[in-house]
Structures are given as structure tokens and as C-alpha cells.
Design brief:
Blueprint lengths: L5 H17 L2 H29 L2 H7 L1 H9 L5 H13 L7 H30 L8 H13 L2 H4 L2 H25 L6 H18 L4 H13 L6 H34 L13
InterPro entries: Aquaporin-like, For/NO2_transpt
GO molecular function: formate transmembrane transporter activity
Subcellular location: Membrane
């Protein structure tokens, strides 16, 4: 399936990070909006499957279809740019600055949020027939998840906040591996398989993904979730975003960059002695 070596795809990671920083604001917003919307649809899809089958594993197995679609289309998630763009700065790519990275993160965040909120409203509207009836079993499941993953953490105070942060780290360790998976092959099937595995793992394990949560919690609030916007921000979105940043960069970006890009040019083949 046209597998690339680690040195090859690690260099592609740096190239990708540099190109995202140089991208226009319009393109950044469009790509981020579509990524947030598609991932939100995938989350709704997985929750629907889980409710209808009673098997969370089936939902987790099928959730990555959204991630695969959005990356094959070249769209961007905040979790991915968290990992890729700092590598371009470390590699001293021309024109790459800290301000440029922060600008990219800001626009991608807003685009992802816009896409996720759009789908959250549409799903809530569909499940309630224009807010004229109750949300039903699927809407109730979404609302219960929102409460459990905000107030459920709040019960434990700082320990709960740190738990979300670490779940965010583990999440973007896996999600950023999925981003890298899109680069390890030049074939569609190879890319899809490489992306599928880590995304399925993070979803089934219940790790915290900031963009999925941009859909999950607002839609829960729309459909009567028993928690506040402040609960969502402080007891989920903020620690999740910080955990996603730390985990993706530390566990995936820096490790691959350090061992496959930084040390690559220093490698020399040892010549056998002449007899």
C-alpha cells in the first residue's frame, strides 16, 4: 500500500505544518469549518449506532469514517494543527513565527467551532422536529453524556479537572497518530487503515477530544442537558484543549520529529572495510 518510511512521512509533517501557517484566512476557516462539521456528524452517527445496538464498540468501530473523510478532503482539525505547526517553527522554516502559529490555531478553533455548532443545531432540530417534541432516546443520550462529562468531573474538584486534562492528552496522542496516518501511505486504502486504528481507540476509551465536544455539549444544552455553559467550558472544553495540545505535541509531534527529522541528516552508512 505504498508505505513511506518514518523519515519520509516525518518530513511531510513539517512541510504540512509550514503550509498551514502560510494558508490564507479564508481557506483556513473553510477547511476548519468543514472538518468540525464532518467530525460532529460522525459523533452523532456513532452515538446513534450505540443507542440503537446497545454496543458502544460498534459505534467506536464506525466513528473513524468521519475522520477519514475529512482528512482525505484536506480539511483541518485543531488537534492536528496543534501537533503539526510547531514542528515548522522548530525546523526553522522560512516565514514561520510564533505569531503565525497562534493565528492559525485561532482561526482553526473558530472554524471548527462554527462547523460543530452548525451540526449541533441541525441534529437537535431534526431530533425534536423543530423543537416541538422531546429529543427522544438519542437526544437523551447526548444530554446525559454532557452532564456526566462536566458535572461528573466537577464532583472531584482539581482531581477531576486533571483527569479531563490527561484524557485530552491521551486523546490527541491517538488523534495525531491518525493525522500522521494520512501521510504514511500514498494510497487511499493505506491512509484509511492507518487513520482508522488510533481514532477507534480514542473514541472507545472515552478520551476527550475538543472538537467532538464542541458538538456534543452544545447539542446537549440545546436538548435540555442539566449543566451550564460555564460547566462545559471550565469542566471540559478548557482542560480538554490544553490536554489535546500537550498530548499531540509531546507524544507524537516531538517524538517523531526528534528521532526521524532532527537526527536524519546525521546518519551515515558505515562502509565495510576494504579487503
Amino acid at each position: 500500500m505504498s508505505y513511506l518510511t518514518p523519515a519520509e512521512f516525518a518530513t511531510k509533517m513539517v512541510d504540512s505544518g509550514a503550509s498551514k501557517i502560510a494558508m490564507s484566512t479564508r481557506d483556513t476557516l473553510i477547511r476548519a469549518f468543514m472538518a468540525g462539521a464532518i467530525l460532529a456528524l460522525a459523533a452523532a452517527f456513532a452515538i446513534t449506532i450505540t443507542v440503537q445496538t446497545g454496543q458502544p464498540l460498534i459505534g467506536a468501530i464506525l466513528f473513524p469514517v468521519g475522520f477519514v473523510m475529512l482528512y482525505l478532503m484536506g480539511f483541518d482539525l485543531l488537534t492536528g494543527v496543534f501537533m503539526l505547526t510547531p514542528l515548522a517553527l522548530l525546523d526553522r522554516r522560512p516565514g514561520v513565527t510564533l505569531n503565525g502559529i497562534l493565528r492559525n490555531w485561532g482561526w482553526v478553533f473558530l472554524g471548527n467551532l462554527g462547523g460543530a455548532l452548525t451540526v449541533a443545531f441541525m441534529i437537535a432540530f431534526i431530533l425534536t422536529y423543530g423543537f416541538s417534541i422531546g429529543p427522544g432516546e438519542i437526544g437523551g443520550k447526548i444530554a446525559s453524556i454532557g452532564k456526566a462529562r462536566t458535572l461528573g468531573y466537577a464532583e472531584y474538584g482539581l482531581a477531576g479537572w486533571l483527569t479531563i486534562f490527561m484524557r485530552g492528552m491521551l486523546c490527541n496522542w491517538m488523534v495525531s497518530m491518525g493525522v500522521v496516518g494520512a501521510m504514511v501511505s500514498s494510497s487511499v486504502s493505506g491512509k484509511a487503515i492507518a487513520m482508522w486504528m488510533p481514532i477507534m481507540l480514542f473514541f472507545y476509551m472515552g478520551f476527550e477530544h475538543s472538537i467532538v465536544n464542541m458538538f456534543l455539549f452544545p447539542s446537549a444544552l440545546i436538548m435540555g442537558g442539566d449543566f451550564s455553559v460555564w460547566d462545559y467550558m471550565w469542566w471540559n472544553e478548557i482542560p480538554t484543549v490544553l490536554g489535546n495540545l500537550a498530548g499531540g505535541l509531546a507524544f507524537t509531534g516531538l517524538t517523531l520529529y526528534t528521532t526521524h527529522v532532527r537526527t536524519g541528516p546525521k546518519r551515515e552508512m558505515v562502509q565495510p572495510p576494504v579487503k
